[in-house]
Amino acid sequence: MPERLTPEQSYALVSKYGSPLYVYDETLVRERCREISGLVSLPFFAANYSAKANTNIELLKIIRSEGLRVDAMSPGEILAETAAGFQPDEIFFIPNNVSIEELRFAAERGIMTSLDSLSQLEQYGKARLPRRVAFRLNPGVGAGHSDKVVTGGKSKFGIETKDVRRVQELAARYGLSIAGINQHIGSLFLQSNEYLQAAATLFEIAAGFPELAFLDMGGGFGVPYHGEARLDLEELGQKLTRVIQDFISKYGREITIMVEPGRYICAESGTLLGTVHSVKENYGETYVGTDIGFNTLMRPVLYDSWHEIRFFTASTERRRLTITGNICESGDVLARDRELPLPAPGDLVCIANTGAYGYSMASNYNLRLRPAEVLIDLSGQDRLIRHRDTYQALMRNMLDEALYLCQ
Ligand code: LLP
pLDDT tens, 310-342? Predict the structure, then answer.
C-alpha cells in the first residue's frame, strides 16, 4: 500500500470529517492524467476520462485542468461534468438503453452521442435530433477482471461487426452522418493484447465510414490491486502509435483518436478510511466488524475484488481475519483470510486503491449515509469535496412529514 496517509493524518481526518471517509490525493490524479495524455504523442490523439469511475466535481475539475475530456453515461454525469467546466464539445455521451428524452437531453446541449444498438440508432434516426452521431462497435473480443465487466464479445453492448452494414443502411435511410465510432472491450486489463486486437478491428471497420471526425478505442487500463506488474504503458503507447499512424495514412486525413480510461486516472489516488467497531470469534473464525459495508465499497462483494487492507492499531498480535462491514447480509465481507494485526474497537481501517468505482458505486442500502469525500491538495492540505449524506436528504425524496424526525 502506498504510504500516502500516515496513521496520525488518518486519525485527524476521521475526527474532522467523520467515518467512513474517502480521501483522494490530487498529486497522483494529476500524474496519472499526464501518463495517459502522453500515451501517444500524435497531435490528434486525445484522452477521455471515463467519469463513471469517480464523478466528484472537484476531481473532474482537476482532470479537466490536465487537458482531458470526458465521457458520460447518463444525464446526471453530463450535469456533473458541465458543473466542472467541461464544454459540450469536450463531452461524449455513450449511453446504453436510454429513452429518447435522454438522447434529447444531450442533443439540446450540443453533446455528441453514441448509439449502442441498431434499435437505438433507428429510434434516434426517426426523432428530430442532430444528424451527426456516433455508434458503438462491439469488436467481438473482450478483456477484464470479471465477467461482469467484460463488454467486448458476448454482452449487451455495442453493434457487432456483421451488423455494421446495417448501420450504413440506417444512416442512409435517416440522413444521419456517422461522425464517430467508439468501443470499450472491458475493464481492468494489465496485458494489452486484446485491446490492440480490438483496435485493429475498429480501424478496419472505420475505413468504411468516410465522414468520421473521431474514433474512440475505449478504456479498461488496469492498475495493480494485489502486487501484479503494472500495465506497460510505454509498450502500449508505441504499438498504438504504429497502428494509428498506419490507419491515418490509409484513411487519408487526420481524425481524433481517443482512449477512455476511468480507473487508471483515479483508482490509486483514493484511500477509504473506516473504524473498527467490533472484534469477535464465531464458530472458529475471527471477525473484525467495521463501518465499511458494501453500501460504501461494493467491489469486494460484487466482483470478489481484492483491496489491500491495513489497520492503524497498536496491536502486534497477528491473526487470520475476516473483515466485514455493518450491513445486514452475511455476504457483507471486505476480505477473508487476511493475516493482519488483530485490531481493537476504535482503531482505524484503511483500504487502498478505492478512488475508482468506490464512491461512485456507493448506495444508501440499510438507509446508511454515503460518506464524505476529502481531497489532499498539492500542498498537502485537506479539503472537503463532498459532504456526507444527511438524514434529511434521505427522507426528503420519500416523505416530507418524516423530516421533523431529523431535526
Ligand atoms: N468507456 C466505457 C464505455 C465504459 O463502459 C467504461 C467502464 C470505461 C470506458 C472505463 O473503463 P475503465 O478504464 O475504468 O476500466 N465497476 C467496475 C468497473 C466497471 C466499468 C464499467 N465501464 C469495477 O469496479 O471494477
Answer: 999 999 999 999 999 999 999 999 999 999 999
Which residue of 35, 36, 48, 52 sits with most ligand 1 atoms within 8 Å of its CB, as the best mutation to test the pocket? 52
Buried b / exposed e along 23-42 (16+ C-beta atoms within 10 A):
bbbbebbbebbebbbebbee
Ligand 1: atom nearest CA of 71 is 1
* CATH superfamily of domain region 26-267: Alanine racemase (3.20.20.10)
Question: Which residues does a 6 A CB cutoff place in the pocket of ligand 1?
Answer: 50, 52-53, 71, 94, 149, 184, 187-188, 218-221, 260-264, 299, 303, 357, 361
Calculated CA dihedral for residues 142, 147, 151, 156, nearest 10 degrees: 130
What's the pLDDT tens digit per position in 162-207?
Answer: 999 999 999 999 999 999 999 999 999 999 999 999 999 999 999 9
Hey, which CATH number is domain 7-22+268-402, 2.30.42.10, 2.40.37.10, 3.40.50.150, 2.40.128.190?
2.40.37.10
Q: Is the full-model pTM beyond 0.70? A: yes
> What are the residue ranges spanned by the domains of the chain?
7-22+268-402, 26-267
